[in-house]
Automatic annotation (TrEMBL):
<protein>
    <submittedName>
        <fullName>Isocitrate dehydrogenase</fullName>
        <ecNumber>1.1.1.41</ecNumber>
    </submittedName>
</protein>
<dbReference type="GO" id="GO:0006102">
    <property type="term" value="P:isocitrate metabolic process"/>
</dbReference>
<dbReference type="GO" id="GO:0051287">
    <property type="term" value="F:NAD binding"/>
</dbReference>
<feature type="domain" description="Isopropylmalate dehydrogenase-like">
    <location>
        <begin position="5"/>
        <end position="331"/>
    </location>
</feature>
<comment type="similarity">
    <text>Belongs to the isocitrate and isopropylmalate dehydrogenases family.</text>
</comment>
<keyword id="KW-0560">Oxidoreductase</keyword>
<dbReference type="GO" id="GO:0006099">
    <property type="term" value="P:tricarboxylic acid cycle"/>
</dbReference>
<dbReference type="GO" id="GO:0000287">
    <property type="term" value="F:magnesium ion binding"/>
</dbReference>
<dbReference type="InterPro" id="IPR019818">
    <property type="entry name" value="IsoCit/isopropylmalate_DH_CS"/>
</dbReference>
<dbReference type="GO" id="GO:0004449">
    <property type="term" value="F:isocitrate dehydrogenase (NAD+) activity"/>
</dbReference>
<dbReference type="Pfam" id="PF00180">
    <property type="entry name" value="Iso_dh"/>
</dbReference>
<dbReference type="InterPro" id="IPR024084">
    <property type="entry name" value="IsoPropMal-DH-like_dom"/>
</dbReference>
Amino acid sequence: MAKQTITVIPGDGIGPDIIDATIKVLDKAGCDFEYEYADAGLVALEKHGELVPEETLELIKKNKITLKGPLTTPVGEGFTSINVTLRKQFQLYANMRPVISFKGTKARYENIDIITVRENTQGMYSGLGQNVSDCGETAEAMSQITREGAERIVEFAYETARKEGRKKVTAVHKANILKSTSGLFLKVAREVGERYPDIESAEMIVDNCCMQLVMNPEQFDVIVTTNLFGDILSDLCAGLVGGLGMAPGANIGDDCAIFEAVHGSAPDIAGKNLANPTSVILAAIQMLEYLEMGDKAQAIRNAITEVIESGDRTTRDLGGSHGTTDFTDAVLERL
């Protein structure tokens, strides 16, 4: 059997350090991957004059599986978000962000296990109809939801729930106000839910959902929602388990997937061996599950769980005093 080749985008800032740590962990766990490296972000802009060079797109397309570190899109200079570009280019319609409590973090909750499934290509982030009037006094943008897009993402959420043995899917919306777009999403979500009688279906207005996540997060299992709401809710969920350093993300399409750290590139600590690599390692675990290498995924998860729970060589954000390499060594030893 041919080796699985992974496209690796180290990214900007702390990206190369935490990606390097993750590759070591994958190798130690015996995953036996081939890696092909590609540039994107500020690194690519300096080297190639563009944020996402053509050869990077070719590699993503060829290998179908990509592991990526945090990327920087220059703010307010007319650059389109790199992540939005990649999602559109490869039709990565599903964004999947699981959060699980780890003992030993400084999180407020101890038994969180929630997956946020977010539509990745439509809604307010589709970039449609964005314009500012000539006088600069009025700005507008358009949100578009299609029945096909809504059905695809809700089905993805229910299929994920079924595959992972989860009990409940909550559709989050604002159909009471956004009667057209959110209304269509909710209507479709109800229809899809009826096709999955083995899974409990719930629905919740987004503002109430935010409050419920803070007050009683244990009630949630799988959340499915549109792009803007999902972006906000998934970060809120990360906050329940100790922050973005503990939260991975997957962008999944029909035949292509990109797994990533969801936090920023933290240029202030780049190259200082301070960053917590957990987010990218958890993204690699998502990647292994996607590739049906569940035993390897579980081995890595167990190793990380032990390190964080024991406090052995943990990074500053986890209450320790160690850096990226020490933390990674602690994980490697347990593998």
